[in-house]
Amino acid sequence: MTTLPLDPLTRKKIHRFRSIKRGYYSAIFLAAAILLSFGAELFVNSRALIVRYEGRFHFPTYGSILPGTTFGLDYRYETKYRELKRKFKAEGRGNWVLLPPAPYNAYENDLTEGIYPPTAPDAGSGHWLGTDSTGRDVLARLVYGFRTAIVFSILLLLCNYTIGVTIGCAMGYFGGKFDLFFQRIIEIWANVPFLYIIIIVASIMIPNFFTLMMIMLFFGWIQMTWYMRTATYKQKSREYVLAARAMGASDPYIIFQHIIPNTISIIVTFMPFSISSGVVVLTSLDYLGFGLPAPTPSWGELLRQGTSNLDALWIVSSVVVSMILLLTMVTFVGEAVREAFDPKKHTVYE
Amino acid sequence: MAPILEVKDLRVRFDTEAGPVRVVRGVDFELEKGKTLGIVGESGSGKSVTSLAIMRLLPRPSGVIEGGSVSLDGTDLTKLAPSEMRRFRGNRVSMVFQEPMTALNPVQTIRRQLGESYVLHHPSMTPGDIETASINLLEEVGIPAPEKRLDEYPHQLSGGMRQRVMIAIALACRPDILIADEPTTALDVTIQAQILSLIKRLQKEHGMAVIFITHDLGVIAEVCDEVIVMYAGRVVERRPVNDLFKKPRHPYTKGLLESIPRLDTEPKTMLPTIEGMVPDFSSLPEGCSFQNRCPHCVEDCKAAMPELDRLDEIGFSRCIRTEELHEEIR
Lengths: 350, 330
Known about the structure:
By secondary structure, chain A is mostly helical.
């Protein structure tokens, strides 16, 4: 294995980050959770992982639907693998079905005559965390909701930072009237009530993933500009910027090659906190009903169901526990990153 | 020989909240190829601003070149468009700064910062060419094991090494003129001597002209051919270095030279100083700027600003009493 050519300072920062145990393990756990959520179809899905039928193997997880006729059933819509499994077992002809550990998807209503949802957690039926008020699997909705929320936050963060860093740097770098003008613009902008805009938009159209992101981006870029503006002012007055100009470097070259690399610690430090705030905002919007449209699995929607069905404690407790876990871990990571980048911690007097 | 750099009546103004302040009030000089010009003066005399104005690197938007011309090989730098000016900077005119600690970007390797001038001015060079050129440069400025140094960061080098790297960066494109703005002020004395002899050696090898800005007269005596002494934004005396040290003509120069401790002065006695401070630019007195500190001031000094008079073939002094004081001073 080749090691990355890292400079000693970066290595020191990584070392320091790893020595802060709770942050380090939270980072590993979160990274694993995010990676696993991208393969969530393999763990939480109504489609089977492997089906062996008449000597042939089928892998229905990804790809187009396999109609019931594929497995000798009498319907042309998507195979019901849980029923298929019971059927094959009863027949005992060597055919078998391997289902994921949680054999439900986030959209299907698992209803049985005479039993009214929500149903309590039950390992036998495969509803590890029970079902919600319309018979959908809570675990499935939790997992897919997590994936939506985290992808949303990361994308939002990238967009916010790209815009915020660029404008903030430009404000700090060019200063003068340009800075003054943008400061006033941002002050006005920041006073537009965010929730009202969302409510207004949600009342005239059903927001989807991208419209929601656009609305949040509309306000989200502001925060970063202030930090970047001050950081750029600080870096701009350092002599190496003058030296670069004396070498004939242009303004964009100086901003991207010299100033931004020197302010990276600020950007990195804010990232985890931005991710957690992204998750919180999306969840609260969903909770209020202004978020993603109805059947989309989301934590906010689960939370709403949970709070209105407090007798079905498994709904509210599972989402609250997941939320607390996620936010605490992100905060731990953020805290560890901040510690690792703190220049004062690198000097040790022995 | 035609001068490579000709500065004529250069005027610089800073627009401050308290109104415009004229910090450079008409500076003239010529610089020939291979020669070294020293600019001396107290803090606030306008020497650094003059050099920044030549490079067109005055702080924006407050610093403005009000008038005059800076012609490099016939091109007036003050009239160039910003993008054309960028082609001159680092390429034909480069600069070495005072603080080697802060003039290098702390988060980039030496390789990157050395290669920068090639990337900016010779975009056709391949990474391999740049590496060879960078190693040669580091060798030239006397850095041992240059291959190893290339991938190090500024904080891993000592102050003297960093200043050598700065000089290497400045020399990368073989400039016609090197402006050294107090390049040795932040270094200790032994390193100072090394850096000075390095600059002298490189100047001889490349035949470049050097402008040396300093308030250290010892450094001036060491490296310069000609010296201009600045006071309150104006040149007060301009002489070849030996003449200046032997026979200063302007009372200010005399005061400067007298305030250097000498081997033959009586130990434990007061060092002569020039009384008072550089006057505030916004309230310069009518007449000679040096009048309130000058021991030879007479009524006529307060009437009008003296001209920079030619003394002989090579020297100039801005004082109405130059001739009569000539005998008095030393």
